[in-house]
Write a structure and sequence with these properties.
The chain has about 70 residues and is mostly beta strands. About 0% of the residues lie in helices and about 30% in strands. The chain contains no helices and 4 strands. Strands 1-2-3-4 form a 4-stranded antiparallel β-sheet, with no helix packed on it. Strand 3 and strand 4 form a beta hairpin. It is globular and about 40 Å long. The model has no long low-confidence stretch (mean pLDDT about 85).
Length: about 70
Amino acid sequence: MDFDGSNAYPLTNSGGAESHPSWNTSGSQIVFHSDRDGNGEIYRRAADGSFHTNLSQGAYEDGFVSWE
């Protein structure tokens, strides 16, 4: 989405609950919490939607994340 709210498009469409997004400083990637795989995991996605990666891949609920 542009700063003025135009050109919005979804970055995900998993059907799971996704929350706690955090952008990196350049705005090129976002990390977020999702339960799309049945338990809470941490995912990373490019702002343009070009890739998406499960960063945690654990058997247990993972906490929330932010870029530092």
